[in-house]
């Protein structure tokens, strides 16, 4: 077997587009067999969030020590807080042949692309910028200033979508969930076919 590793699936997109909502729909679905990479962050816990489930919540000092110890696949400072993907669980999972699903912002996705060019990159986009603003306001978890900041960041993030393998518009949650699952299934088929062709070619060369 040439590539027995699991697939690294990166779902990115601006804050408020619905990444968390779509990700939850994916993981609630019985067909889903991916593992979820729980990120670390220094931001304050929101009401209803659970440490070790939604995020591993860390102090700034703890996070900076983890950076120094090279414990992240990627990390980024996003609107005054650190966010990062712990390296150990991701590597263990893909080496074990299981797919790992990362839900991260755009700067972090760029770092993943440099380290794991074979990962699958999916950008979740809003139908319009107005939808994004409405969703952030509707979620009611951030102050007006932070929402403004996130919208400004989103405008720059949306310019990066052409660098992704796929763009999925999150108009309706279940449709976005289904599209993402179909993309992953198709990607597995493609990679398997390429691997078989490569193996056949190598045997012919021998
Ligand atoms: N397709 C949709 N239609 C309408 N509302 C949606 C849709 N998807 C998500 N939402 C709502 O938009 C808000 C933001 O969604 P969510 O928190 O999942 O976004 P996010 O991209 O994960 O944000 P962040 O990056 O800040 O964590 C939530 O209130 C959610 O219920
Ligand atoms: N680069 C990374 N970005 C991450 C990670 N985990 C989450 N995120 C992204 O941060 C913003 C803000 O999240 P919020 O929970 O404060 O709303 C959002 O775009 C997340 O997708 C990570 O490990 N690395």
Question: Tags for this entry?
Answer:
globular, alpha/beta, Rossmann fold, binds the ligand Nc1nc2c(ncn2[C@@H]2O[C@H](COP(=O)(O)O)[C@@H](O)[C@H]2O)c(=O)[nH]1, binds adenosine-5'-triphosphate, single chain, 5-stranded parallel sheet, 206 residues
The helix/strand series, from N terminus to C terminus, equals EHEEEHEEHEHEHHEH
Rg, please?
18 Å
CATH architecture of the domain at 8-37 and 99-203: 3-Layer(aba) Sandwich
The CATH homologous superfamily of the domain at 8-37 and 99-203 is termed P-loop containing nucleotide triphosphate hydrolases
Distance between the termini: 16 Å
Categorize the overall geometry.
Answer: globular
Name the strands of the widest sheet in spatial order: 2-7-1-8-9
Count of strand segments: 9
CATH topology of the domain at 8-37 and 99-203: Rossmann fold
Overall average pLDDT: 94
The percent range for helix content is: 40-55%
Structural class: alpha/beta
Task: Report low-confidence residues grouped into runs of 5 or more.
Answer: none
Beta-strand residue percentage: 15-25%
Q: Which sheet architecture does the biggest sheet show?
A: 5 strands, parallel
CATH class group of the domain at 8-37 and 99-203: Alpha Beta
Work out the helix count. Answer: 7
Q: Report the bound ligands by name, code or SMILES.
A: adenosine-5'-triphosphate, the ligand Nc1nc2c(ncn2[C@@H]2O[C@H](COP(=O)(O)O)[C@@H](O)[C@H]2O)c(=O)[nH]1
């Amino acid at each position: 077997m040439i590539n027995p590793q699991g697939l690294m699936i990166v779902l990115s997109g601006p804050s408020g587009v619905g990444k968390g909502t779509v990700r939850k729909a994916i993981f609630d679905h019985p067909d889903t067999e991916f593992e979820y990479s729980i990120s670390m962050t220094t931001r304050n816990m929101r009401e209803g969030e659970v440490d070790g489930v939604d995020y591993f919540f860390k102090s700034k000092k703890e996070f900076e020590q983890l950076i120094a110890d090279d414990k992240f696949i990627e990390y980024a400072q996003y609107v005054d807080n650190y966010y990062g993907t712990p390296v150990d669980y991701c590597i263990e999972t893909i080496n074990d042949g299981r797919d790992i699903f990362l839900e991260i912002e755009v700067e972090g996705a760029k770092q993943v692309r440099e380290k794991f060019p074979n990962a699958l990159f999916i950008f979740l986009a809003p139908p319009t910028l107005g939808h994004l603003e409405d969703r952030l306001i509707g979620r009611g978890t951030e102050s007006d200033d932070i929402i403004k900041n996130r919208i400004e960041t989103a405008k720059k993030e949306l310019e990066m979508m052409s660098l992704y393998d796929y763009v999925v518009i999150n108009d309706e949650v279940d449709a976005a969930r289904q599209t993402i699952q179909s993309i992953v299934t198709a990607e597995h088929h493609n990679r398997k076919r390429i691997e078989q062709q490569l193996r056949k070619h190598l045997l012919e060369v021998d």
